[in-house]
Structure formats: structure tokens, C-alpha cells
Specification:
about 270 residues, alpha/beta, Rossmann fold, 2 domains, 8-stranded mixed sheet, 10 helices, about 15% strand
């Protein structure tokens, strides 16, 4: 295992951990998550390190990575490219994205970041009645909460509007110790909101969305996940002509390291 930082185009320091050697697999976390809060990434990496260089990094503004305002989505494409070039030595990279991190991976591939194949776990889409769309002013409300010094309100909005949790449950969560950690990364919730763009608008996916993606794509969702998340995965898989849809054992927006590592190993070997 090795740890270090890379410097992105705008000077932001991006912290990473890498395991193993070989062609790189780069893992992108979803909203609020980073290396210290998602042990599944390390567990998966350790299972794949016999054959691949597996890299997990803290997205800008989280964990041990720095941040450089103002935020635009392209800065995170540059962060990913820096990881691929500086840690992966420019070798053909498989990128695994969790949730809204999967949307980021798709957007980066569309923008031309050198990615050999994409593995997406429950990417975000709301295209029918399976889940309500995000409020039209979602990004603006997140930005306002952060600007006004109300990070807890930004987290609560994310939990209710994006994660679809009952307001009563979120109110109880605000009294727990881990809430402070969520508030610390609250500014980055608006980053993910911008990455999902209009895929959570409740409208059909635009025909031109991700139209330049011609690499193999694996779209996974837990067999027992929430119906809305499975529906979003199916919609994105149907939208991408080079994709394969793969329901996997798991529930509640995740799976286990052994299942995920096996799926990734097979996907890479077959593509």
C-alpha cells in the first residue's frame, strides 16, 4: 500500500491510496464519502491488488484533499486525469464510480479523460415515477446554506431530497456524533449536485447525453436495493449502447468487497 498526493491542474492537492501493481483501477466515491469513511474501497482493492493497481482518492474538499474555489465540474475531471497520469502512469484505466461518483465518471469520459472502461454502481437517474426528481432549486439552496454558514441544513437537504430519507429520521441523525463529519464535507454536496446535472430532473435522459462514450460500460445495482436506484441504473444502462446491466448481490446502495472485486475482474478480462 502506498499513500501520496497529486497536484491537479488548478493547484488542488488530491490525496490517494494505492494498492498492488498493474493496469489501474481508479475508484470514485459518491456524495459525502471519502477514503476514511468508505472501508469497502480498501477491502475491494486488497482483493484485486494481486493483478491490478487499485487507487482510491479523496475528491476535492474531502478528507485529506484540498479545494480551490470556485467549483466547476471540469475541475473534477482534471483531478481524475491527474490520478490516472501521475499514479497510474497513464496506463489504460478502469474507473469505478459509486452513485453520483458514477455520474462524475461518465461526465469525465464524455469530456475526454483517458478511460479504458467504466464500472458504475447505482448511478443517479430519475426518469419516471420510481423516485421524485430533485427540486428545481436544489443547487441554489445548497449553495445558500453553505454561504449562510448552515452546513447542517445543506446535509439535511441532501438526505431528504437526494437520498430520499424521511425528514423525521434526518432530524434524529442531526443529534448523532457522525453528523459533524457530514457537515465538514457539506460544501461538496453541491459539487455532486452539479455532476448529476439533469439526470435527476424526472425527465427522460437527453439523447445527446454521454454520446461520445464508446468504451465498455458495466452498470451494476444491488439485487435488493431500493427500487428507485435500480430503476435509475436500468435507465442509464439502456441509454448507453456499449453498456451491460448487471444486478449483483447487495442491498441499500452497496454490495460486498468479494462480489464487487469478482465483478470488476471479470469485466476487465472480458473487455
Amino acid at each position: 500500500m502506498a499513500e501520496g498526493t497529486v497536484i491537479s491542474t488548478d493547484g488542488t492537492s488530491i490525496a490517494y491510496t494505492a494498492w498492488g501493481a498493474g493496469d489501474p483501477i481508479v475508484i470514485i466515491d459518491g456524495a459525502t464519502a471519502y477514503r476514511a469513511t468508505n472501508p469497502l474501497n480498501q477491502e475491494t482493492a486488497e482483493l484485486l491488488a494481486d493483478e491490478f493497481l487499485v487507487i482510491s482518492y479523496d475528491r476535492r474538499g474531502r478528507g485529506e484533499s484540498s479545494d480551490t474555489p470556485p467549483y466547476v465540474v471540469e475541475r473534477e475531471f482534471e483531478d481524475l486525469e491527474a490520478i490516472i497520469e501521475q499514479v497510474g502512469q497513464g496506463r489504460p484505466a478502469t474507473v469505478l464510480g459509486w452513485s453520483s461518483g458514477a455520474n462524475l465518471a461518465l461526465n469525465a469520459a464524455q469530456d475526454g479523460v483517458p478511460i479504458a472502461r467504466l464500472a458504475l454502481f447505482e448511478p443517479n437517474a430519475a426518469v419516471n415515477e420510481a423516485r421524485p426528481p430533485l427540486p428545481g432549486d436544489y443547487v441554489e439552496r445548497l449553495d445558500a446554506a453553505i454561504a449562510d454558514g448552515r452546513p447542517g441544513d445543506a446535509v439535511a437537504l441532501f438526505m431528504t431530497a437526494a437520498a430520499m430519507m424521511p425528514a423525521e429520521a434526518v432530524a434524529e441523525m442531526r443529534e448523532l456524533d457522525f453528523w459533524a463529519g457530514l457537515e465538514a464535507v457539506a460544501p461538496t454536496i453541491a459539487y455532486d449536485a452539479r455532476q448529476v446535472g439533469d439526470t435527476l430532473s424526472g425527465k427522460p435522459l437527453r439523447s445527446e447525453l454521454w454520446k461520445r462514450i464508446d468504451i465498455p460500460v458495466l452498470v451494476m445495482h444491488g439485487i435488493d436495493t431500493w427500487p428507485a436506484l435500480a430503476a435509475g441504473s436500468r435507465a442509464i444502462a439502456a441509454h448507453l449502447p456499449t453498456s451491460t446491466l448487471a444486478p449483483v448481490p447487495g442491498a441499500e446502495h452497496s454490495t460486498t468487497a468479494d462480489v464487487l472485486a469478482a465483478a470488476l475482474r471479470t469485466f476487465i478480462k472480458e473487455n
